[in-house]
Amino acid sequence: RRPTKQLPPGSMGLPVIGQSLSLLKAMRANTGDEWFKDRIRKYGPISKLSLFGTPSIFLHGQAANKFSYTCDGNKLANNYQNQSAGSLRSIIELSGEDHKRIRAVLVSFLKPEVLKQYIGKLDEEIRHHLDTHWHGKQEVKVGPLMKTLTFNVICSLIFGIERGERRDILVGLFQELIAGVLAVPVNLPFTQFNRSLQASAKIKAIVMDLIREKRVAFEQQGASPHQDLITCLLSMRNEDNSSVLSDEEILDNAKIVMIAGHDTTSILLTFMVRLFANNPSVYEAVSQEQEEIARSKAAGELLTWDDLIKMKHTWRVASETLRMTPPVFCSFRRALTDIEYGGYIIPKGWQVVWALSMTHMDETIFPDPSKFDPKRFEQQVPAPPYSFVAFGGGQRICPGYEFAKIETLAMVHYLVTRFKWKLSCKDDSFSREPMPVFNQGLPIQITPKKSSGAL
Ligand code: HEM
């Protein structure tokens, strides 16, 4: 059948504003799913709209996921217009060969064989975090604490930035930077956008210093190029021995990995803590698996890769949590040429938007989708490709999957073997900004377990 080459149905809304305000409002009220469902009811799985000043096509469904994840990067590129992050040269902005090259470096850092070497350091960071921020306290705010933990882990394991003042300053600056991602771009004193720009400038100064230090260590002191991600990026050479990446490009990639690598895992861990508080039977089942592993070890012995492999039930619980509440909610791409899809045309320059969680809640793929059921991930036959997309898919599938997995499992191990907890306040709601943020930070009351190795 010849494509009609028509634009899909849908209204473009008001000039410039389009549907942006109504989508942002729905995301903040955590009713984004409903917002997209309404569109699908009205216009079907392909529709046009206008978001953030850009004409856009919304796509829905497993076939649309597959199309967006596998479409040639020269036709459909990532579309991140993050002015506050100022990032134009990082992995998420690149496509084609440039993307492949940077991605290969990242993957070489984040593959299981390399991660195995980090387990001791990861274990040590988690214990230090719990000893500093959890033990001896009656109440803690889970949301901010998980961000601190996952940021420290990524600094230590990927960037070799050890504990100390520089790391503490960076953690605050990144939180400020991220808060500005969806802020209204008004650069006046006291606006969130302005704070975010200032944070970005300070991060730049710190990371540029770090790049200079790492360059001296690499060029003059013989440090291995594989010792951390920054050294690896600055050691990349063209055939004429010139640097492949400028310092600005190294900065941008470092920033993206720091953001992508900590914000997502911290949200998964926060959702899991809430889940355990609201569902004692889920907590008990995970706790049983983790206590068994704890019993097989001598007091104070570090977790090993083999211990993490045994935590199968805990990872199924994490996967089901991600199915129902994926941290990354929708993805944006940009058409670099006219593209025909589903009998319609996606014109060059238009944005392509699709919501990841829509297939997660599709009852033809995940029966009874609102029920929390980790057994779904036990099935012999896994969900069809491109339907569970918490980590994306295709050539841009999350390179941090294994890293996120070991970090989540190790943290859950220490949490459930050391503590019990309940929510301190009734409001455990969250909004999407665009990442989920708990409105009260998720405060919990904690009680140490008698059997806890730390007591
Ligand atoms: C629970 C934790 C995580 C979740 C749910 C998650 C989810 C995702 C998703 C959905 C994408 C694809 C976005 C798109 O297609 O538009 C992605 C990409 C990415 N993630 Fe993750 N992620 C997690 C943890 C991590 C970690 C720990 C790291 C690094 C250490 C990381 C680094 C990245 C990078 C660099 C990309 C861009 C890849 C590319 O464009 O080729 N992520 N992640």
TrEMBL record:
<dbReference type="InterPro" id="IPR002401">
    <property type="entry name" value="Cyt_P450_E_grp-I"/>
</dbReference>
<keyword id="KW-0812">Transmembrane</keyword>
<feature type="binding site" description="axial binding residue">
    <location>
        <position position="398"/>
    </location>
    <ligand>
        <name>heme</name>
    </ligand>
</feature>
<comment type="similarity">
    <text>Belongs to the cytochrome P450 family.</text>
</comment>
<keyword id="KW-0732">Signal</keyword>
<keyword id="KW-0349">Heme</keyword>
<dbReference type="GO" id="GO:0016020">
    <property type="term" value="C:membrane"/>
</dbReference>
<dbReference type="GO" id="GO:0016705">
    <property type="term" value="F:oxidoreductase activity, acting on paired donors, with incorporation or reduction of molecular oxygen"/>
</dbReference>
<dbReference type="Pfam" id="PF00067">
    <property type="entry name" value="p450"/>
</dbReference>
<keyword id="KW-0560">Oxidoreductase</keyword>
<keyword id="KW-0472">Membrane</keyword>
<dbReference type="InterPro" id="IPR001128">
    <property type="entry name" value="Cyt_P450"/>
</dbReference>
<dbReference type="GO" id="GO:0004497">
    <property type="term" value="F:monooxygenase activity"/>
</dbReference>
<keyword id="KW-0408">Iron</keyword>
<protein>
    <recommendedName>
        <fullName>Cytochrome P450</fullName>
    </recommendedName>
</protein>
<keyword id="KW-0479">Metal-binding</keyword>
<dbReference type="GO" id="GO:0020037">
    <property type="term" value="F:heme binding"/>
</dbReference>
<dbReference type="InterPro" id="IPR036396">
    <property type="entry name" value="Cyt_P450_sf"/>
</dbReference>
<dbReference type="GO" id="GO:0005506">
    <property type="term" value="F:iron ion binding"/>
</dbReference>
<keyword id="KW-0503">Monooxygenase</keyword>
<keyword id="KW-1133">Transmembrane helix</keyword>
<dbReference type="InterPro" id="IPR017972">
    <property type="entry name" value="Cyt_P450_CS"/>
</dbReference>
<dbReference type="GO" id="GO:0016125">
    <property type="term" value="P:sterol metabolic process"/>
</dbReference>
